[in-house]
Amino acid sequence: MPVLAAIRGAFGTSTRLPGLASDLVVADPAGWTAADGDVEPLLAAARRHWHAQPHVAAALMWKAYSYWLAVPVAFSWVAARRVPRVAASDVLIRLDAPQAPIRLGLRTAVPAAVLASDPLASGPLASGPLASGPLVSGPLVSGPAVSVVADEAALLEQVRRVLLGEHVEPLIDAVQRVVRVGRRPLLGSLAANLAHATRHAVRAVPGASAREVGTLLDGLGLDSLVEWAADPAGLVTVRRRTCCLAFTLPQPRLCTDCCFSPEQRARA
Q1: Handedness of CA 24, 27, 33, 36 (dihedral sign)
Q2: Domain of life, per the record (predicted)?
Q3: Are 82 and 31 in contact (CB under 8 A)?
Q4: Alpha helical stretches, state H, 126-259
Q5: Is the whole model's pTM more than 0.70, yes or no?
Q6: 60: helix, strand or coil
Q7: Tell me: the pLDDT tens digits for 220-240?
């Protein structure tokens, strides 16, 4: 399966990633909760984990959350031009993972969209280009039906509609009703995490181009929130244009993609 193979190529495993369910899918939902539920447990877990002010803890939990949310999206796009449905109702979370502040997984039946050239599109139950919401059994690869769209622009629109419209934006709204934290920094974390996840995918997928980073960011309207560049060998570097607030922790931390300049980092 190209998506899981790419994840294994990038991280060495698809079953033991600290922030994701084994092979992306939650086989047994016991102990997991839907991502469209109450955000109070999420924010309380953030405060316990970071021992920081509420807005700082919320920003850092969001940074962790949005990275693991970005991985299946970026790898599905780069490895297979498939768009999994990651609406909040289709994503499960748990807060007791030993190696990460939060763990995410997809439900066992995952809606997805593909191009007409995808082998899944020729299945007997594949739906037409105007259909939406069919289920794909298992981790983004096979099942009773898929939604077929016209071109890559339509796939990117699916990403924007589902990832932003049906997950990220409502969740940010819910967080902001509880904690005073800026929308732009939270979207900046999502943008940086998509860039990082995509650069990992590009390195793991033969023939993939570093331009995929810009393609996803542009398609989601997040390109103004992050700077990225590729060297002649295709190695991608990422720098945020917003702050995740890690430098305000009791033990300050500067991230590798920090928006501070090298001079500011040295002073810090």
Answers
A1: positive
A2: Bacteria
A3: no
A4: 152-159, 169-176, 183-204, 211-219
A5: yes
A6: helix
A7: 999 999 999 999 999 999 999
